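DATA SHEET
Item: assembly model
Revision: 1
Owner: S.N.
Input lines:
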Amino acid sequence: MIRFNNVTKVYGNDTVALERVNLEITSGEFVFLVGASGSGKSTMVRLILKEMEPSAGAIYVNGTKLSSVPRRRIPRLRRDIGCVFQDFKLLPNKTAAENVAYAMEVTGQRRRTIRTKVPQILDLVGLSGKMDKYPDMLSGGEQQRVSIARAFVSQPPILVADEPTGNLDPNTSVGIMQLLHRINRIGTTVVVATHDREMVDVMRKRVVALEEGRIVRDKVRGAYTDEV
Amino acid sequence: MRFNFGFFLGEAFKNIRLNLLMSITAVTTTFICILVFGLGLLVSAHIQGVIGSVRDDVSVEAFMPNADQGEIDALAKKVEGWPEVASVTKVTQEQAFAEFKDKFKDQPDIYKDLDTGVFPASVQIQLKDPGTANDVAGKLKQEGFSEENLSYPQQTIDRLNAVTSYVIWGLYGATLLFLVASVLLISNAIRLSIFARRKEIEVMKLVGASDGFVRTPFVFEGLLQGFVGAGLAALAVVWINFLFVDWAHNDLPYVPVSSDAVNAPFVLVVLVAVGVAIGVVGSFLSVTRFLRKI
């Protein structure tokens, strides 16, 4: 589903963010990318979204080599990858429902489909009562739920989350993780970059640990740190 | 993909409402630029109008200083026989003075020290067709009249042109500069409003919006702002024109200012079209440039 082939990313002239990373994520997996700040987690997420190009190596998403996707085809690529961010990235002038609807509008879906689907998905993330609230009227956890609903509303095969619980308290984080877990269970490949140790240890999923741009550990049903 | 007109228009209206101050800036800029552009058009239209109405003048005047009545009668008789001529009127020195006094009856100071002898006697020739004025003037020159002793429309036109050509070119230059400035100002206003919303645009791109999808509401917004600004300016121009023609008729009765010189619906359409074009092109280019960067 997602494959990194000897990927190196250098910022500027000498800041190495990723160094010869090889990683294969298969369909339906749930993978944590863990590591300290600056270890290269976010760089991997941004490379998957083709927000930037690798300095060397190749990345495949859904069987497509990203470097061969022309600029104008990027929107189509992103519709296959739902994304969730630490700072939610909701449109401030749109209500929760409108934010979710926007992700459907961009794909040109019918208004009737949008009208039926949006309440369903918001109900799924537990926000049926807050459809018409603007982001600044919602708590952090609620905003993140809206952003997950938006990422998932078109049912993309892949969902990528960059520090989804970074701004949330532990209790709220559990809810968000459960939501991601549920999304994974219906067959979506989920990649979560995080340094939320507790969460990773509780979930017992595949853990890929990064350190200074290299993969130092890759363990199925792993924990945040190496268990002795 | 379906083009969702209602969605885009709704987005545009919402953006205008939420960025009201920015929208007002864009509308005001458009208004001022189109207003100046329109006034430039107005002035040149009226100058053309005056020149046109002089050209349609069917009278040629031949002044005969130092001529006695016999010579005047002889000329009048001869001219009456020309095929282009409709009628001939003889004006004596006394009549010319009386006419002058009548013309300036509000300002008696002008003529109080003059005496009758200042004004030459003349023969006024009415033509059947204004197009023949130059031929008739030519014939009169063959009769021994010098350029200074003739008055026919082409002279007036030449004199008007000498004065107005500089004015008109200056006006065209200023109008052009203003148009360029307005394009820059408006695209700057749009760039500012896009910059204020750059985060939003980045998010739109992240959830898979194509460049066109992000751009369309902005283009609609530019269209609406251009339409409102230019529409108000065009109405102002037409209104100012109306006031000017009214004023000229009352206070400048000897200048042939005509309300026909300016075609009001045409001016409205041209100005609004220019404003809308600036709004659309400006926002299209600004958003496109911004989208290239992310």
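QC remark: The radius of gyration of chain B is 30 Å.
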